[in-house]
Structure formats: structure tokens, C-alpha cells
Specification:
Shape: globular
Structural class: alpha/beta
Strand order of the largest sheet: 1-8-5-4-2-3
Distance between the termini: 38 Å
Helix content: 40-55%
Radius of gyration: 20 Å
Number of helices: 15
Largest sheet: 6 strands, parallel
């Protein structure tokens, strides 16, 4: 098992009716920026619940944070915080809103071009240099409510880039599974697949000695397979909803990644498809993941076989046979979850996609990716072209 440090200071407040606790969680006398997305929180009652719970607090509202939050939009919130001397941010939404708030938190006191936060992957570790924030989760998928990472899009250059650091954990996150009842089917499908692939990025590498970590990961995958198709059809079923929401958090709160190798190349390639074609994040992962496993088969076949045996109950005469069946089962599951697993099924005029992505990775110096740093630019091209 690799050496690791496990630090997660988030006060995770889970269950029905927990939004009522906001007044005790937000610092007293705080001036609060209430940040949200396209306005669904007005339709599902979350806005009313949040503002009622914060009666007596001075609140400034900032809406319009996009799916795949835009740097340009977030900088408007940064300006508001600076001008109005706001000292706490409350993110009410899904992963995009929470990710956006993490960037806002980091950018307010940043000295220089805020785009450099993304382009140079600055890590924020000094709490005095960020604005504290909490979250009220409305869309489970990314795990952003219990981690310190974020992804933001610079619209001007069509770049989808990351930021993070130990100072960017939420102070608290309120997670009420009943809020998913009003979500569109597509968003629920995306949430399940997003969480599933988060686990795969940290699990589907090569056999190692961290036995407990593997079984943590496998249990999340098996739970998502069990509840995923059903929760999409019955989001008001609390058993399904609560297990889905908790699985999505556990998929990316840092626990299953400790002491083990991880990949993340599926995400790096997938982010480019979102930046290029506005394909939903989860759907880019469903497109790229299985083809990455095929191209990197020799590297990953042992872990694929283990995954097939333990998660899908696959039997076979050889490691290769079990590994191949595991990839097939994964694709079938993605199709069951409503994913279209080719780029051409999600976008048009895709002929030069591989050229664009390879060139962009080369410009950034991303020439060796994956758990063994053996996903070269040539492999990236092969993965993308296989995904057409």
C-alpha cells in the first residue's frame, strides 16, 4: 500500500429536512453570497427552504452559474464579493455550482490573472487566502460536496481545467436525498454514470496490496449498479435515493483513492469533448472509458478481470476472457443508464476531434498519463478515434 495522508474536514449533514440547520452552520453575522445555477431551486422549493433557514442573515444572490461553470461568469461573482465585502459563500446546486464556488472562493484574494489559477493548477492550502463556503447539494454526481477539487471552463479558449487544494473543502455540506425527486431523468442518469466512472478512475488500474480500498470501490460500484436504473425511474423512493446520493459522495471524497494508484485519463480526454461539443460530462466518460480500457488492455487486463469477477460475477477460462467480458458489461450498463457511447451519437462534425485533443495535450505538456504514465499522445489518438 502506498503512503498517504487522509484529510477531510467537511461537516457532512445528511438526510431529510437537514436544510433547517443552515442557521447554525453559517457563521453568525456573516454576509452571505447565495450562489446557484439556472433557477431550478425556485421550482423545487430549495430556494425558499434555504432563505427561510437563513432569515436574519444579509444575503446577496448570484444566479446563472452554468453546467460546466464558466470562468467569465464566475469572475462576475468575484467582483461582487470584493465590492460588497462578502465573507461567506453558500453554493446551492450540483457539482457545477459547487465547483464554481470553489473557484470564486480562491479567486477573490488572488493577486494576478485569475485564469492562471486554472492554467497553472495552483493549489490553495492557506485558509486565510480563500473565502469560506458551504454547500446545499441539489444534484448528486461529482462528489464536489465533500472534496476540494473543481473543474472550470474558460469559454474564450474552450478549455476545461482544474483547481483545488486543502483550503477548498466546504465548511459543511447539507445533503438531503429527497431533493432528487424533481430532477430530470437525464440528470439522474448522468449522476449515476459520473459517480461510477469516478470509482473506476481510482480502481481500474492494476492489482496492488490495498485490499480494503479495492473492496470499498467494488461496494460502491455494486451499489450503483443495483440502484442506478431504478432510482432514475423512482427518484422519490428514499432507499434508492439515499443510497445513490451517498455512493456519489463516497466515490470522490478521497477515501478510496488513498494508498492506491489512479488513472484519470478518461476525465482528461472527456473534458475536451465537453469543451468542444458541450456533451454532458458523464456522457463523455461513458464514451471514452470503455475505449480507454480496450486500448490499454494489456496494462489493465488483470484489474479488469478482478472487476469482472467481483462486481459482475463473471467467470471465464482466462484473464483475457474475463477482462473482455467486463468491458462488455460496463458498456451494457452505460446503455441501460441511457448513455450513447460514441462521439458521433452526441455531436456533429467530429472528424478532427483526435487531432484537436492531441494537439492541445501536446501544448500543455500532457504527454504521459494514466496510472503508469503510459497513455501517450499516440494512445490518446487511438482512444479518441475508436470513440468516433
Amino acid at each position: 500500500m502506498l503512503n498517504f495522508e487522509l484529510y477531510n474536514p467537511v461537516n457532512y449533514v445528511f438526510g431529510k429536512g437537514q436544510t433547517e440547520k443552515l442557521a447554525t452552520l453559517v457563521p453568525k453575522d456573516a454576509k452571505v453570497l447565495l450562489a446557484y445555477g439556472g433557477g431550478s431551486i425556485f421550482k423545487n422549493g430549495v430556494h425558499e427552504a434555504v432563505t427561510s433557514a437563513l432569515k436574519g442573515f444579509e444575503i446577496v444572490e448570484f444566479g446563472g452559474i452554468e453546467p460546466n461553470p464558466r470562468f467569465e461568469t464566475l469572475m462576475k461573482a468575484v467582483q461582487i464579493i470584493r465590492e460588497q465585502k462578502i465573507d461567506f459563500i453558500l453554493a446551492v446546486g450540483g457539482g457545477s455550482v459547487i465547483d464554481g464556488v470553489k473557484f470564486i472562493s480562491a479567486a477573490v484574494k488572488f493577486d494576478g490573472d485569475a485564469a492562471d489559477i486554472l492554467r497553472t493548477r495552483i493549489l490553495f492550502t492557506d485558509l486565510s487566502q480563500v473565502i469560506p463556503f458551504g454547500t446545499v447539494l441539489t444534484l448528486p454526481a461529482t462528489g464536489s460536496e465533500m472534496n476540494s477539487g473543481a473543474v472550470v471552463t474558460i469559454e474564450a479558449t474552450h478549455e476545461k481545467l482544474t483547481l483545488g487544494g486543502s483550503a477548498l473543502f466546504p465548511k459543511f455540506s447539507i445533503v438531503d436525498p429527497t431533493v432528487i425527486t424533481s430532477l430530470p431523468k437525464r440528470q439522474l442518469q448522468n449522476g449515476v454514470v459520473d459517480a461510477f466512472t469516478h470509482v473506476m478512475e481510482q480502481y481500474l488500474t492494476y492489482p496492488h496490496d490495498a485490499l480494503l480500498q479495492d473492496r470499498f470501490a467494488e461496494s460502491i460500484l455494486k451499489t450503483l449498479i443495483e440502484v442506478g436504473p431504478s432510482v432514475v425511474e423512482n427518484p422519490s423512493d428514499y432507499k434508492l435515493a439515499s443510497n445513490f446520493v451517498w455512493s456519489a459522495t463516497m466515490a470522490l471524497n478521497g477515501l478510496i483513492q488513498k494508498g492506491v494508484p489512479s488513472d484519470w485519463a478518461t476525465h482528461m480526454i472527456g473534458h475536451e469533448l465537453t469543451a468542444l461539443y458541450e456533451i454532458d460530462h458523464a456522457r463523455t466518460l461513458a464514451i471514452i472509458g470503455p475505449n480507454l480500457y480496450k486500448v490499454m488492455f494489456e496494462t489493465k487486463k488483470d484489474k479488469l478481470a478482478q472487476y469482472g469477477e467481483r462486481v459482475w460475477n463473471i467467470t471465464g477460462n482466462s484473464v483475457e476472457e474475463k477482462a473482455e467480458k467486463a468491458i462488455e458489461k460496463t458498456i451494457e450498463f452505460f446503455h441501460t443508464m441511457g448513455m450513447k457511447t460514441k462521439i458521433s451519437e452526441n455531436a456533429e462534425n467530429i472528424e478532427k476531434t483526435a487531432d484537436f485533443i492531441v494537439n492541445r495535450f501536446e501544448e500543455r505538456g500532457w504527454k504521459a498519463m494514466g496510472e503508469k504514465q503510459n497513455i501517450t499522445l499516440e494512445k490518446v489518438r487511438e482512444i479518441v478515434e475508436m470513440s468516433y
